[in-house]
Amino acid sequence: MRSLLGWMIMWVGAAYAVGGNEAHLTEIHVIERQEKGTLLDFIPPTTSLSGENLRRRREPTLGDTLKGEAGVNSNSFGTGASRPVIRGLDGDRIRVLQNGLGALDASAQSADHAVPLDTLNTERIEVVRGPMSLLYGSSAVGGVVNVVNQRLHTRFEEGHLWQAQTQTETVLGGHASGVRGDHGADGWMLHVDAGLRDAGDQRVSRQSDRPRGRVGNSQVEQRSAGFGVSRIFDRGHLGVSVGHFSSDYGSVAEPEVEIFMRQNRWELSGEWRFENAWADKMRVRSAYSRYRHDEREGGSVGTVFANRGSETRLEFLRERGEWSHVLGTQSIFSQFSAEGEEAYLPTSANDQTALFSFHERRNGPWTWSGGARIENQRSRAEGDAVLSESMVRGFTGASGSLGALRRLDGDWSLGANYSYTERAPTFQELYADGVHVATGTFDIGDDSLKKEKAHALELSLRRKSDDWELRWSVFGQSFDRYVALIPTGGQDGEGNAIHEYRQVGAHFWGSDAEARWRWAPAWTLVGRGDIVRAKNRDDGSNLPRISPARLTAGVEYERDAWSGDAEVQRVFEQTKTAPDETRTDGFTMVNLGGRRAFLWDDYRLEAFVLLKNIFDEQGRQHLSMSTVKDIAPLPGRNVVVGAQAIF
């Protein structure tokens, strides 16, 4: 019934797009409308995945959607959960944002916890590789991923526009459908969206030894809905939105366990432009979230994770001549709890307040930048079954950055960026004590952990012209007192490997690059590659779960109503393993895609076919926990058929 409903949503919309006569399309371009991202576009550069590129790479989870981008991979936990990994860093060192504010979930606490974001109705995903701690907090020491939807508008456009889409794919035996609409009248902008995804167990390569060619308990069912209203003024805007997301999915590491995750989220966004004042504009954004995550075994709830939190940002922006300035404050609050027989984290209240300032000066071919941030963080854990008595830890950290960009002859530029970050240990690193069933480990925190300190340096070469887009970066990041979850070599009474959070010296270094060359009017060549290494400086060993080297080559074709692409990605064998970590074989994936657009005066219908892993290659994700890597290979051959209508 739900599958039939999904198809009906799409095809009713498509029929209306072809035959309807009541729509009035103006200039509301829901897809790829904004050229500049919502993240401040300073050094390091922000890259964006949107439009056709996003539709081609869209997967049920955020991490798997981004895993083909240079420098970005995924710690996949089956079909239902994955989180981005940037340059070898994951978890609390990568900030995942929705419309510039934190996801306010529990995904950073465990790989089996999904990010509550709907990729179906996402307009754009922005990625910053490297530290953005200055603007977005110490947990952005590895990078930022910002998921942008259209629920809140910043400018008025009269008229209305609807978009409906659907797709089905063989590897999951299911479908995904979404619809969204925008309407503008009398200075008001309204938005509504809804999405659903229903998929069965993931099919794997015939070369795999999995029974019946599928990964057991990997099914996923997602639902989302959102509404937003914005008022556009002559000198600014103010809007509010509400969104709901739910995901019910199996835990591939536990055959009898299903996860039921829910989040309700409210957002506010406003901007006011001043006249004859010390600042040009004031911008405020705020989000409040109620998150719940039930782990059920045999129909009964075993453990409940909950997180109630909020985040607010206030920014003042000023431009005078060659100078640009940003001054802002940020506050984050969360109340986290884990209750049940498998709870290994205590109930805790966590709050963070910060003041930051950033400045940029353009002087001929040079652009200089610099800024600083001061951040206070406190974590208060309650005494319960996990923690014998209440504890409070407080930290004050500082961050700073310096950058330079030199425009060279022609379309080239050369950039350098240095940053220093102090990150406070999370409540999980401080207070964990118990069996983490999803990973098969017994995790022990250390309430005496100190601030983690990191120095990062990045050099980048860029080119942007009508025919070329190129970015090549070389980076290094050195950590003092890096918090790592390290195996002790022992086991608990149930055979779970004991891991302890310890502080070690760590060093990450590597390179990533991406290029696009339009060598003919209809043809574009695409290339991407990355490599990262990570060492424990104290004993010289490799750090675990580091992405193997990858190379991707592709070609894209676009002429009139037809477009297509072909891509070959080689993932090399990972031999630089940590103690007690197994190697992961390399593999090669080949993907093809084709699209045909049908255009009318005010309507557009596009049909597409994607062939993923067409040679049914077996691959395993080295970044996943060993229990998952062995159980859940990457998807086998997959045929995706779908359509999208805009009217």
Task: Explain how this protein is built.
With 647 residues, this protein is mainly β. It has one domain (2-646): Maltoporin, Chain A (Beta Barrel), CATH 2.40.170.20. It contains six helices and 31 strands. The strands form three sheets. It has a 22-stranded antiparallel barrel. β23 and β24 (468-491) form a beta hairpin.
What are the salient characteristics of this protein?
22-stranded antiparallel β-barrel; 56% strand; five-stranded mixed beta sheet; disordered N terminus; 7% helix; mainly beta
Number of domains: 1
Number of helices: 6
Oligomer: single chain
Helical content (DSSP H or I, runs of 4+):
under 10%
According to DSSP, the number of beta strands is 31
Q: Mean pLDDT across all residues, rounded?
A: 88
Structure class? mainly beta
Biggest beta sheet attributes: 22 strands, antiparallel, barrel
Shape: globular
What is the radius of gyration?
A: 24 Å
| Name given to the CATH homologous superfamily | TonB-dependent receptor, beta-barrel domain
Distance between the amino and carboxyl termini? 26 Å
- Please identify, by name, the CATH architecture: Beta Barrel
Low-confidence stretches are 1-37
Q: Which fold name is given in CATH as the topology?
A: Maltoporin, Chain A
Gist of the model:
The protein is mainly beta and 647 residues long. Helix content is 7%, strand content 56%. It has a single domain (2-646), classed as TonB-dependent receptor, beta-barrel domain (Maltoporin, Chain A), CATH 2.40.170.20.
